[in-house]
Write a structure and sequence with these properties.
The protein is mainly alpha-helical. It contains 27 helices and nine strands. The strands form two sheets. Strands 1-2-7-6-3-8-9 form a seven-stranded mixed β-sheet. A two-stranded antiparallel sheet has the order 4-5. GO terms for molecular function: ATP-dependent polydeoxyribonucleotide 5'-hydroxyl-kinase activity; double-stranded DNA binding; polynucleotide 3'-phosphatase activity.
Length: 589
């Protein structure tokens, strides 16, 4: 029965939405192929793929004339639900019963395989279409999308460069590069095609996942210049890149730029707070909590725990039912009970302003009533407490800095044994080589005990290190030593450095393997960029060893901030890098 142009337009528009009840009503009033296709399409878009199949079966059982539009809509419904086996079965049945189908239906089947990440099946279908000279840009795009979802970025690039893919295919290839952290390939694709916001977002993600956060920020700047307004996804990808690169300052700058053009969502807020957490910026985490969820509170509580701000961590735990936040708050309070006595005691022994130290101790040891934990913490009081602590520490900084500068002149005048070199207050022994993944270790009390008459912390250490090397890891030692930075004579400096080099070389010779070694030798009371938890030693190694990937690496140390530990510098070093951390007990596992 013929239908009017107006009704045909209504059916087509309804089929492109999720108004499947309206389409079914129209189909009942005017049973025809257009109405059937619209109803099946609407059900598919509403995630009712099983109802789409029932409608298609009803169409066939009533001996309606064959029409490719009905099959195409059914295949599209299968594609929306990633039912690739069902889509291929429908195509096979249509071929066997000589029902009409066209390229639109074949591309829908390809799309179903792509959404299910079945790149092998997609590639086989594409090859069949090419043999029949039927493949078009949509066919290639669907296959590249399948490679994207399966993270087979090399094949996605091959299809992009050898077939007629358009901007959609280029965006899918960029997304595949992002999943595989192939930042260089992503940049090449971006420059070879006309870029849009989606393309820039994928390229920024690729740079971020390979810890190339500076490149990610450059791409964000290019996106702001090229497009009228970069999408919020571009800003979120840039913040995530800063998070993986432990660049919390850059993350805050990106967040402020995003806030000018977009209402901020939880994705970008969570990434920013996580970035600040890795940089131990607990106070900044708290200021970002105007739009919180469980993930946000968990990251903020973890930041407070790392800085031993147990009051703030407990307050966050009371705001949301989050296991992460509660665990972080508990750990923060336990750590604070031990660390606060030790730190305030050290300041008291050396400070020249006892009235500041007295006030500092009173504030640090002030108990927090339980009922206050159910309320929002008064940030002003805690900021004042931190300011007072900084006053006490800054009162000691100037004379220490002057002594450190004098010692640096002595350190720079030393002749080091080959192949040892120095950079600032860092001694290092590192042969330039690829280092895709790093097994990092602290030295004292992790691998090694004692001075001249030293011993291993575990008899299995040489075997474990060699096994890691066989598994493709570059074994690197990152150690804090403070002896050289305290020397005031050239002879004393030479003796300290020779002792450090001898201890590390003896350990390397005993293990019988090549080890990269980085030793921060500045005074422990100076905030030197090479001393853990600062990441200067890792940055120096990255410049020598082809930028190892943090997410594939791990770090083992004994200073984990536990009760009885001297500090938490090893855990903090790993956290700032975003790297997996293990205590020294890992060596006995």
């Amino acid at each position: 029965m013929p239908i009017s142009t107006r009704l045909r337009r209504i059916l087509a528009q309804s089929g492109r939405t999720t108004q499947w009840r309206l389409c079914l009503h129209l189909w009942a009033q005017k049973p025809c192929a257009v109405a059937a296709a619209a109803a099946i399409s609407a059900c598919g878009r509403a995630a009712h793929w099983d109802q789409s199949l029932a409608l298609y079966d009803h169409w066939l059982r009533h001996d309606q004339p064959s029409d490719p539009a009905v099959l195409n809509s059914t295949l599209a419904a299968c594609a929306h639900a990633a039912r690739w086996v069902l889509a291929l079965t429908l195509l096979e049945e249509a071929k066997r019963h000589h029902r009409a189908f066209d390229l639109l239906g074949l591309n829908s089947a390809l799309n179903a395989c792509g959404r299910a990440a079945r790149w092998e099946v997609s590639l086989a279908l594409l090859m069949q279409l090419q043999k029949q000279r039927l493949a078009d840009a949509t066919s290639v795009n669907s296959t590249i999308s399948a490679c994207d979802r399966a993270a087979v970025w090399q094949l996605a690039l091959s299809l992009l460069y050898t077939h007629r893919a358009d901007l959609v295919g280029a965006s899918a290839a960029l997304s595949a590069c992002a999943r595989g952290a192939a930042w260089a390939s992503a940049l090449a694709v971006l420059h070879a095609h006309r870029a849009n916001a989606v393309s820039f977002g994928a390229a920024i993600t690729a740079c971020g996942r390979s810890t190339r956060w500076r490149f990610a920020l450059q791409l964000l700047g290019d996106a702001l210049k090229t497009t009228s307004r970069a999408s919020l996804a571009c800003f979120s990808a840039a913040v995530s890149a800063c998070e993986l690169g432990a660049a919390w300052e850059a993350a805050l700058v990106v967040l402020s730029k995003a806030a000018r053009d977009w209402p901020l969502d939880r994705t970008i807020l969570n990434a920013t707070i996580s970035s600040c957490e890795k940089g131990w910026q607990w106070d900044r985490c708290l200021t970002l909590l105007h739009a919180t969820d469980a993930v946000t509170c968990g990251a903020a509580a973890e930041a407070c725990a790392s800085a031993m701000r147990w009051v703030e961590a407990l307050s966050l735990a009371s705001r949301v039912d989050s296991v992460v936040a509660t665990a972080a708050a508990t750990r923060a309070k336990e750590d604070a009970q031990h660390a606060v006595h030790r730190r305030s005691g050290a300041i008291g022994r050396r400070a020249e302003k006892p009235h500041i130290v007295k006030g500092l101790k009173e504030l640090l040891l002030q108990p927090c009533p339980t009922h206050q934990l159910q309320e929002t913490v008064g940030l002003e009081a805690h900021v004042a407490r931190i300011a007072l602590e900084n006053m006490a520490i800054d009162a000691l900084a100037e004379p220490r800095l002057q002594k450190s500068q004098g010692a640096m002149k002595l350190f720079a005048a030393l002749d080091l044994p080959s192949p040892w070199k120095r950079q600032g207050w860092c001694l290092y022994r590192c042969l330039p080589a690829p280092a895709a993944k790093v097994a990092g270790f602290d030295f004292d009390k992790t691998l090694h005990f004692g001075g001249t008459a030293w011993k291993l912390s575990s008899v299995h250490i040489p075997e474990k290190l060699k096994r890691l090397q066989q598994d493709g890891y570059t074994v690197v030692i990152f150690s804090n030593q403070h002896g050289p930075g305290r020397q005031r004579t050239l002879e004393g400096m030479r003796k300290e450095v020779e002792d450090i080099v001898r201890r590390f070389e003896d350990f390397r010779a005993f293990c019988g393997m090549e080890l990269h070694m980085f030793v921060a030798v500045a005074r422990g009371d100076i905030d030197d960029p090479f001393r853990k938890p600062n990441t200067g030693m890792w940055d120096l190694m990255s410049s020598l060893c082809s930028s190892p990937k943090v997410r594939h690496s791990f770090y083992v140390g004994n200073s984990a901030g536990r009760l009885g530990d001297d500090s938490a510098v090893d855990r903090g070093f790993a956290k700032r890098l975003g790297m997996t951390f293990y205590s020294e007990d890992w060596l006995n596992g």
